[in-house]
Design brief:
binds adenosine-5'-triphosphate, 5-stranded mixed β-sheet, metal-binding, binds fe (iii) ion, binds magnesium ion, 10 strands, EC 2.3.1.234, tRNA N(6)-L-threonylcarbamoyladenine synthase activity, alpha/beta, tRNA N6-adenosine threonylcarbamoyltransferase, 40% helix, TsaD
């Protein structure tokens, strides 16, 4: 099926078009520049920016894909989780398009879409791949608002949460630590880049929830065996900077960035691989904005190889928020025979990851 996907959950206005598991186009407009001076996304500004950007982004996507709205079989839109006002712009636009064209509308979970984008094929015409997915699929979702390890028995209707962060998301930790280090916003790409010039072993930052009382044993699992915590790490970085300053020494920003990144990536990859091994998971999809991180890709890749797990990593531009991931999940729903959502649904800013799409 030819599916048009619309994304507006945060500061990216995205329109993507797929045919089955083949990507035709992925057009994204970001209001990031307007938020930089505030050090974070301002919801009201993001909503207004979606309103400005939506129609031009849609027109560009249709033009690039060489299709018209008439050609499209269905429309998919992010209906949560995300910023309520921002979601509303994309959802309103999608409902209007659906009513005007008579095309069915799918209200989609943004987080599952981050993962489902990994099912797009890099080669054209390999559209049957979706039917050959492993039965016991895992997904490691690492984004600005979430850090989760999922078991996916079916990407369209059976997603189970195995572990998650109990406080900050990994992307949030990157953004907060970047602020402490004076690297500006968004912090993830800045830390990723600077860390390459630093020594990750110069400082040992804490790995949250790795003590025996949280991990338990293989037989008797602890209460947080597959969970993460990043707020202590953020505090440890702040203390470390204060100590250098109190001694009147220059703060080794690159070393701290590298050591912080190593702590985050170490604990994310080790717990994710453990959860997969202990659930017989053989294939893992990596997704979310932090999946763009070079060290996370590298270390998770190495550990998966050692554990005999196949890691599927999407291209960089499909990791951060975009419309193609929404279209990709929409196409999976249609191919699985799942019905559309109608137009009566409302955006849900805290939609749980277990809700893949909204039932009519
Ligand atoms: P969610 O998907 O949970 O609703 P979101 O949509 O805001 O949240 P994403 O767009 O998925 O988040 O990801 C944005 C986050 O990814 C930001 O926190 C950003 O700092 C982080 N990020 C982007 N690139 C990198 C990178 N190379 N290394 C680390 N973090 C990165
Ligand atoms: Mg964003
Ligand atoms: Fe996202």
């Amino acid at each position: 099926p030819l599916v048009l996907g619309i994304e507006s959950s945060c500061d990216e206005t995205g329109v993507g078009i797929v045919r089955g598991t083949t990507l035709l186009t992925n057009t994204v407009s970001s209001s990031m520049d307007e938020h930089v001076r505030f050090g974070g996304v301002i919801p009201e500004i993001a909503s207004r920016a979606h309103l400005d950007a939506f129609v031009p982004t849609l027109q560009e996507a249709l033009h690039e894909a060489g299709v018209t709205l008439e050609d499209v079989d269905a429309i998919a839109v992010t209906s949560g989780p995300g910023l309520a006002g921002a979601l509303m712009v994309g959802v309103c636009a999608a409902k209007a398009l659906s009513v005007a064209t008579g095309k069915p509308l799918y209200a989609i979970n943004h987080l599952v879409a981050h993962v489902g984008v990994g099912l797009l094929d890099s080669k054209p015409d390999a559209g049957a791949a979706a039917g050959q997915l492993p039965q016991n699929l895992g997904a490691l979702l690492v984004s600005g608002g979430h850090t989760e390890i999922l078991r996916i028995r079916s990407i369209t209707d059976d997603v189970e949460l195995l572990g998650s962060t109990i406080d900050d998301a990994a992307g949030e930790a990157y953004d907060k630590v970047a602020r402490i280090l004076g690297l500006g916003y968004p912090g993830g790409p800045a830390i990723d880049k600077l860390a390459r010039q630093g020594n990750p072993k110069s400082i040992r930052f804490p790995r949250g929830l790795t003590q025996p009382k949280y991990m338990g044993t293989a037989e008797e699992k602890g209460p947080h065996r597959y969970d993460w915590s990043f707020s202590g790490l953020k505090t440890a970085v702040a203390r470390c900077v204060e100590q250098f300053e109190a001694r009147g020494e220059e703060v080794p920003v690159a070393d701290i960035a590298a050591a912080f990144q190593e702590a985050v990536v170490d604990v994310i990859s080790s717990k994710a691989v453990l959860a997969c091994k202990e659930h017989g998971i053989t294939d893992v999809l990596l997704g979310g904005g932090v999946a763009a991180n070079s060290r996370l890709r590298e270390l998770t890749g190495q550990r998966c190889v050692s554990a005999g797990i196949k890691l599927h990593v999407p291209p960089l531009d499909l990791c951060t928020d975009n419309g193609a991931m929404v279209a990709a999940l929409g196409a999976q729903l249609i191919m699985a025979g799942i019905g559309p959502s109608g137009i009566a649904f409302a955006p849900d800013s805290s939609m749980p990851v277990t809700t893949v799409s909204v039932a009519a």
